[in-house]
Write a structure and sequence with these properties.
The complex is a heterodimer. In chain A, about 35% of the residues lie in helices and about 30% in strands. By secondary structure, chain A is an alpha/beta fold. In chain A, helix 5 runs parallel beside helix 6. In chain B, helix 4 (about 345-350) packs across helix 5 and helix 5 (about 360-375) packs antiparallel against helix 6 (about 380-400). The chains are: A alpha/beta, B alpha/beta. The structure holds adenosine-5'-triphosphate (ATP) and magnesium ion.
């Protein structure tokens, strides 16, 4: 049974005003096949947690650990983490001019598997995933994320999730900016990936709507750099009704 | 678009994407450009000191022999892929000489005074049997002694062709290339500089584009000690099109320079200038100056120019100076952009987060950055060769220590 464990994680960023503490002791454990929803106010540090696990150089780990099956992830390079089985669907995927989606996907697959995928089955798999996500096949010829609409970028992230088959996926607001139909299509993609590989998921979101399609096993309330409360799916409904007011101390209100 | 590159203030580079005249480059209005002195006689130009705006970014001492020295202007060996009967040596007195423009600086005038025969390439009108012609002129053996050459490419009315000028080997060369597009001609000229590492090359390309004619001009500089190619293109006829592209990859110690002049003369002309460069290694140096002038009769002009540079290591310097001057109020649009920067860390992060190693991610980003221009070539064999050449350049950088930690 695979497990991704975050222990007492403290993270800061360098700003023009000096060092700013963002994560202030995060504890979280995700087992293979589990879905953990993370909800919390803007600026509470959710993306920081996601990026830190993925290894973005901007974030400085002050203390704590992130382990995958007991192996420390924080000492690995970004690409090593991906090869160890971590995947981050980004809140704002970047454009990469001149790099075609098809080439990018094959290069990533090759890097993760250590060998190039057999061409025909791979092309078939890419086509099928794209069609399931209702992405026109013309996207394969386009440059990575270049000129994609917000929703198209998110579908492209989930396309990668399906094709690259990680063990743990962090989805940072994948549902934001999706129309109702797209939300369902993307959620089905996540569920397919989970059914196929027993993926563990950390789902960062502001909305309970996506939780109707992707059923969380746990819901965590993220406030001011740490998890303020944990519960089952019913916690999400409570948040929807009540908001975050009762978690916010004066100090954390921006 | 600028998001692809992080603008930086280092090494004299700067981001620039406005149309202001207050930018800190000490630029002169380019209207002066159209009034610039031109002559075919070397002695008509004053001595070059290296502080002239035309020369101040060039290593003048290194190319002094080309500016002032005697040049060997005799015919040289060349090879042609394609119909060799379209290529011939012509005399200095031939009417084609000077039909596209004449020298605007001393090194070009030195070459003009020195050449004995000019190489003429003449593309006849397209026929049903030959709708498109393709010619590659290869020269690989110009030697180390200072030389002058002169080339005239004439695209006859309603012709359709691609002419590739491929240069390799040693050279100390000052040259002039004239390009004439008659009415309705469609011509692609690709000048590829893959010289030996000690080569010195100063080139002026003069082009005049007739009514409804379309010129695609691509300058590719990949190796050589000093390579300076200055295309000066006049969209003269109504509805003329000029697409001026450039691609350069400067390694340690290499100086690649391009001063592009695009002159909208006739009405309803369209111009696109897009140069992209990569720099790596100590002392890698590039200069791009882009002057666009929209003349008083050039109503309905549609013009855009841009230059982008990617600095792969420390110790490189890229100058990028766009200038736009408009002398008629009645245009469709005109703009310019320029940016010089390092790798975008966000792009590298995105690729690495998908398991791709840093080296491979850098390779993808650079190839992607430059491939926008490679894709303009429109000749699959040459595109493949350019991609391979860029890969070779990059492999060199992978072998060298990185300028920056990951
Ligand atoms: N480079 C930086 N400089 C200054 N502050 C930063 C920097 N990076 C992050 N922060 C701050 O860290 C805090 C946490 O940001 P983060 O993006 O993790 O929030 P979030 O919970 O994902 O918010 P949202 O719900 O809006 O996506 C914010 O207050 C943000 O402004
Ligand atoms: Mg966020």
């Amino acid at each position: 049974m695979s497990v991704l464990e975050v222990k007492d994680l403290h993270v800061s960023v360098e700003t023009e005003q000096g060092t700013k503490q963002i994560l202030k002791g995060v504890d979280l454990s995700i087992q293979e096949g589990q879905i953990h929803a993370i909800m919390g106010p803007n600026g509470s540090g959710k993306s920081t947690l996601a990026y830190t696990i993925a290894g973005h150089p901007k974030y400085h780990v002050e203390s704590g650990s992130v382990t995958l099956d007991g192996v420390e992830v924080l000492t690995m390079s970004v690409d090593e983490r991906a090869r160890a089985g971590l995947f981050l669907a980004m809140q704002y995927p970047v454009e990469i001019p001149g790099v075609r989606v098809a080439d990018f996907l094959r290069t990533a697959k090759t890097a993760l598997d250590g060998e190039a995928p057999a061409l025909r089955p791979w092309i078939k798999e890419v086509r099928e995933s794209m069609s399931a996500l209702r992405m026109d096949k013309a996207f394969a010829e386009r440059n990575v994320n270049e000129g994609f609409s917000g929703g198209e970028k998110k579908r492209h992230e989930i396309l990668q999730l399906e094709l690259l088959k990680p063990r743990f996926a962090i989805l940072d607001e994948t549902d934001s900016g999706l129309d109702v139909d797209a939300l369902k299509i993307v959620a089905e993609g996540v569920n397919r990936a989970k059914a196929a590989t027993g993926l563990g998921v950390m789902l960062i979101t502001h909305y309970t709507r996506i939780l109707r399609y992707i059923k969380p096993d746990f819901v965590h309330v993220f406030v001011d750099g740490r998890i303020a409360e944990e519960g089952g799916p019913e916690l999400a409904d409570r948040l929807e009704d009540e908001g975050y007011d009762r978690f916010l101390s004066d100090a954390s209100v921006a | 678009m600028t998001a692809a590159i992080t603008p930086t203030e280092q090494h004299g580079a700067r981001a620039h994407s406005d149309g202001g005249w207050d930018a800190p480059s000490g630029r002169a209005p380019i209207q002066a450009r159209s009034e610039r002195f031109a002559s075919v006689a070397h002695d008509d130009f004053p001595a070059v000191t290296g502080i002239e705006s035309e020369w101040k970014l060039t290593p003048v001492a290194t190319v002094r022999a080309l500016i002032d020295g005697p040049l060997d202007g005799s015919p040289y060996e060349y090879a042609v892929d394609g119909d060799a009967s379209l290529v011939e040596w012509i005399d200095r007195t031939d009417a084609r000489i000077g039909s596209a423009g004449i020298a605007e600086e001393r090194a070009a005038a030195n070459a003009w005074s020195s050449f004995e025969k000019a190489l003429a390439i003449t593309i006849p009108a397209a026929t049903e049997a030959e709708p498109h012609r393709e010619l590659t002129i290869r020269r690989s053996d110009l030697g180390d002694a200072p030389r002058a050459t002169h080339t005239v490419i004439t695209a006859k009315a309603n012709s359709n062709a691609t002419v590739i000028l491929q240069s390799t080997g040693s050279a100390t060369l000052s040259e002039n290339v004239e390009i004439v597009l008659e009415e309705g001609a469609n011509l692609t000229v690709i000048s590829v500089q893959e010289w030996a590492s000690d080569a010195l090359h100063l080139a002026s390309h003069f082009a005049t584009v007739g009514r409804d004619a379309r010129l695609k001009h691509i300058v590719v500089s990949l190796s050589g000690a000093v390579v300076r190619v200055n295309p000066s293109v006049h969209l003269v006829g109504e509805g003329a099109d000029g697409d001026l592209y450039g691609l350069y990859f400067a390694d340690a110690g290499e100086h690649f320079e391009q001063r592009v002049y695009l002159h909208h003369v006739g009405p309803n002309t369209k111009g696109r200038v897009n140069y992209k460069g990569a720099l790596q290694g100590d002392g890698a140096r590039t200069v791009w100056v882009g002057d666009v002038l929209i003349g008083p009769d050039a109503v309905g002009t549609d013009s855009y120019e841009q230059n982008r540079n990617l600095m792969l290591t420390d110790g490189t310097r890229a100058d990028s100076i766009p200038n736009l001057e408009i002398e008629t109020g009645d245009i469709l649009g005109a703009g310019h952009a320029s940016a010089t920067g390092r790798f975008d860390d966000e792009q590298l992060f995105y690729l690495q987060a998908r398991g791709i190693t840093e080296t491979e991610a850098r390779r993808l980003v650079v190839i992607g950055f430059l491939s926008e221009i490679v894709q303009k070539v429109g000749n699959p064999a040459l595109e493949a060769r350019l991609h391979a050449a860029i890969e070779t350049e990059l492999a060199r950088s992978a072998a060298e220590p990185k300028g920056e930690p990951a």
